[in-house]
């Protein structure tokens, strides 16, 4: 598989956890500079695939490359300068302010022999500004709403100055207003900052509206991968999700209308 212009390339990846074979011989490439979404039914293996791609679940060293280098060749700090990961439910520090949390994103750049205080402050201010959380900087994390908290976690990730932002179901537990707020923020970071975004979503409509590229998983197998506009179809979603859907186009983008169960 060619890895040119790939943020992550996966080749013939299979994953077994315990006695359960979760992923079966998956090969897929995540394009640089685009928003890519992994979708599929609950329990299909999409979060396992995401975590295998970034080293949170171990896989054979030759199976995964990040920016054309084997995943196994990265130290923790070097990988953190390339990629930031937000899990579905991050551990919430109870006695930390927003600003202190965002400063945690600077850890890959801090060395005992180098004073990075000025640079760190500038990057933290930028991350707070672009996520529109600057007014929250002195608030404690538990005092925030779900949407505010998610934007703050993204600010912390941006403080790492990554080329690639990876998120596992970033809109879970949020109401529709805050879901769209997060999706719009990710799209803006992609368009304005050139940030490559890879995420797992469970909402089909959000996936097709906000993704440039999609990989579709069912029962641990890769069913389809490609530009969203090219692979989105009634038949694909019927096969994968077992629902009656109709894919329409609105403003030159696909739109999924779920009509009911098959």
From TrEMBL:
Residues 8-244 form the ABC transporter domain. It is a peripheral membrane protein. It comes from the Bacteria. One of its GO terms (molecular function) is ATP binding. Its main location: membrane. It holds the Pfam family ABC_tran. Keywords: ATP-binding, Cell membrane, Ion transport, Iron, Iron transport, Membrane, Nucleotide-binding, Transport. Gene3D superfamilies: P-loop containing nucleotide triphosphate hydrolases. The keyword Transport applies. It is found in: Cell membrane. InterPro entries: AAA+_ATPase, ABC_transporter-like_ATP-bd, ABC_transporter-like_CS, P-loop_NTPase, Siderophore_ABC-ATPase. PANTHER family: IRON(3+)-HYDROXAMATE IMPORT ATP-BINDING PROTEIN FHUC. This is Iron ABC transporter ATP-binding protein. It comes from Veillonella infantium.
